[in-house]
């Protein structure tokens, strides 16, 4: 379980990034942070693995303040998938996936088995893709490898920061469906950032709407649709009202 308790962040120049965030993220669920650009959603995500630090309040994982963990070991235990996949260009697919297991000193045989397992899990044939370089992958294939890398050391928590936003609509839709199916197998705690309300409704068990550094509303898709908290939330979801299938 991840908890944000009265979390705030003020930058050195005095600008306020986040204001008094109180939120519980349940285990084995997909929680989606959504908001406009500059709302603070990615900053909030990065506080979980301390790529950003809160200046007030506490962020806890399993009841322990994240600042009390060994930062390197904590990050090894949290998967991270980004919009810019950031595969190391000089390393093959298998070498990219093996990075964290090697840091954790897994045995070679265990790593080898895990690479095959993960590539199959994300829909890439191991014999075909293990030895490829990132330059030989399409955008969708690279993102699948990025997801495999995030899962490599079998972390309980996965952070996904707009991982599909740079992809074409068809590839993006396929990957969204694949994440839903994959979650039914792996039951991870996934925190997902997006600016797309349809993506949030499709993936999220819980959806957290963030505006100007404040958590405006959190709940299920149906709770937010049936009882939007304010005009901002109403406007944010209004342009999808015509597409009834996402409201069923």
TrEMBL record:
Pfam families: ABC_tran
Listed GO biological process terms: quaternary ammonium group transport
UniProt key word Protein transport: no
Organism domain of life: Bacteria
One MF term in the entry's GO annotations: ATP binding
Similarity-based family: Belongs to the ABC transporter superfamily.
Protein name as it appears in the record: ABC transporter ATP-binding protein
Species the sequence originates in: Leptotrichia rugosa
């Amino acid at each position: 379980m991840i908890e944000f308790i009265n979390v705030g962040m003020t930058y050195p120049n005095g600008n306020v990034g986040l204001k008094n965030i109180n939120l519980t993220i349940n285990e084995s669920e997909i929680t989606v942070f959504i908001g406009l650009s500059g709302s603070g959603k990615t900053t909030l995500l990065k506080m979980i693995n301390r790529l950003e630090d809160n200046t007030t309040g506490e962020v806890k994982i399993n009841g322990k303040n994240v600042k009390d963990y060994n930062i390197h070991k904590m990050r090894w235990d949290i998967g991270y998938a980004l919009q810019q996949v950031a595969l190391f260009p000089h390393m093959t697919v298998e070498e990219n996936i093996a990075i964290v297991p090697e840091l954790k000193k897994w045995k070679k045989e265990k790593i080898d088995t895990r690479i095959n397992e993960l590539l199959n899990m994300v829909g890439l044939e191991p014999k075909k893709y293990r030895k490829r370089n990132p330059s030989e992958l399409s955008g969708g294939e690279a993102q699948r490898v990025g997801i495999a890398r995030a899962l490599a050391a079998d972390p309980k928590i996965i952070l996904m920061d707009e991982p599909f936003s740079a992809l074409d609509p068809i590839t993006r839709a396929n990957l969204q469906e694949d994440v839903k199916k994959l979650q039914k197998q792996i039951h991870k705690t996934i925190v997902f950032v997006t600016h797309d309300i349809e993506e949030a409704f499709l993936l999220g068990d819980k959806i957290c709407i963030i505006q100007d550094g404040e958590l405006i509303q959190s709940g299920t898709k149906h709770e937010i649709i049936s009882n939007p908290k304010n005009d901002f939330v109403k406007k944010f979801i209004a342009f999808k009202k015509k597409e009834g299938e996402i409201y069923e």
